[in-house]
Amino acid sequence: MKIGITCPYSWDVPGGVQQHIRDLAEALIDEGHDVSVISPADDDTPLPRYVTGAGRAVPVPYNGSVARLSFGFLSTNRVRRWIKDGGFDVLHVHEPEIPSLSLLACWVASGPIVATFHTAIPRSRILLVTYAVVRTGLEKINGRIAVSEAARTTLVEHIGGDAVVIPNGVATRRYRKADPLPGWPGPGGAIGFLGRLDEPRKGLQVLLKAFEVLGQERPGLRLLIAGPAADPGDVLDRVPAALRDRVVLLGQVSEEDKVRVLHSVDVFCSPNTGGESFGIVTAEAMAAGVPIVASDIEAFRQVLRGGEAGELFTTGDAGDLARAAGRLLDDPARQAALSAAALVAVAAYDWSVVARSVLSVYETVVLGSTQVAVTASGGEFP
Amino acid sequence: MIADIAIVIAAALFIGVYVSWRAGRIDRLHARVDMAQAALDATLVRRSSVALELATSGLLDPATSLLLASAVHGTKDITSRPRDLAESDLTRALRAAFSQPDFRASINGKEGADELLAEVEAAAHQVFLARKFYNDMVAATREAYLLAQAPTVELELARRSA
Predict the structure, then answer these.
(1) pTM summary value
(2) Residue B1, exposed/middle/buried by CB under 10 A (0-12, 13-18, 19+)?
């Protein structure tokens, strides 16, 4: 299948939507499809072979913050040429409600169009969809995908119509192998944590409490913590002075370092107290093959197959976490078994599986339709 | 004795005249600030309305339209963002739209395009002027306040040392 994908945000800025498009495109290419992505990008940014640059994105105020977007007749002309030259069977636009390339693509294209909505859209922005010029574009969409139940609810309630929910995948391949950080995990063993440090629902406070017990029992055990915080010093203040030099804070880390963190510990801990719909970090740890101990919230129970692919402890119970983590640290055979089970379980969330779900949406909308083409009326500029 | 009374009366008269003159001046300055503020408000409202007209005119691509429309919307929905910031956002959105290379050439010749663009530009320029005047008035009034306070302090000191 020849697939054209539009990205609304600058390719050179890290972001969830860009990451999603990259993983989806690469999974589709692996399946043997012909994929072309158009995205705003600085002219000197090295782009993957399958990405066409649509020129530099312009920083503009949008919805109370500054976004780097592509708009205007020059971008429109580039999108039109890309569609004309592409000869796509299906056009897949991401975030078409943002004033950028995806909206422009909807405007100039005819034929089968699929749209993916990533964010739950605040109400104030929905009102704008009533503007005729935007509505015309959105009404051309044949199939809609929402990446979460929240995004779907927004669509149903505020824009009308429905969407299929296809969640983000995990690029399991990227997590499989990495070098541990120098000196890790060390002879005394190490426990890892990833996530916002000052967001109570991420549960770091439960892990720190458990470490008070674990750290005293095991003189060499260390804690490796990666993630942003408004005031990282506050975290160390909560650790007893005697244990403080065994708690290492890395702050916010890059994608590559995140994988290395996962390979630097003996046990990974997901102590979340709620609010997770899927638990992407836990799935990434599974893909890295690190044994996991996680709270028994519904999301983790599901992804860890009720404890088969990871140790579960009572949510919020630091004592139970200390016992579960201690047992796991002492039992290399159990670690190996959980790691193997996690690798099998996480395969169900791999991008290759997600890409097949997306592909079946493509296959549905192309039925009885022609190729993607440029409309005669849509946005003619000299 | 009579001379003393005369001096007291003269001093009282002088202080009275001075105070009322000062109050009148501050009052005039305030009125001027109020007028400048009303003028600024009127130009902002006008700019919003012509910007929205441009956004919904069909002259622009939908992305630029949506960008402008959402910025205009922001200036009206003051619950989510302070108005001064929202108005600055609209300034920047208009600048981003108008500063595209060959922006004019891209819509030249379309029906009503020239008039509408001229109107938006005139409205934006008026906002620029009105904001400048308003800022000047506010600065001048603040200065007058500071100056007005100085003699009061001097009088106070004179009275105490007497």
Answers:
(1) 0.77
(2) exposed
- In angstroms, what separates the C-alpha of A367 from chain B's closest C-alpha? 28
CB contact under 8 Å between B67 and A71, yes or no, is yes
Confidence band of B153 (pLDDT split at 50, 70, 90):
low
Which is higher by pLDDT, A30 or A44?
A30
For residue range B4-37, what is the model confidence (pLDDT) as tens digits? 888 888 898 888 888 888 778 888 888 888 999 9
Q: Does any CB of chain B come closer than 8 Å to the CB of residue A254?
A: no
Q: Judge: A131–B67 Cβ closer than 8 Å, yes or no.
A: no
pLDDT exceeds 60 at position B157: no
Chain B residues near residue A62 by CB distance under 8 angstroms: 67, 70-71
Which residues of chain B neighbour A70 with C-beta distances below 8 Å? 63
Rg of chain A in Å (alpha carbons): 23
B93 chain-A contacts, CB cut-off 8 A: 60-61
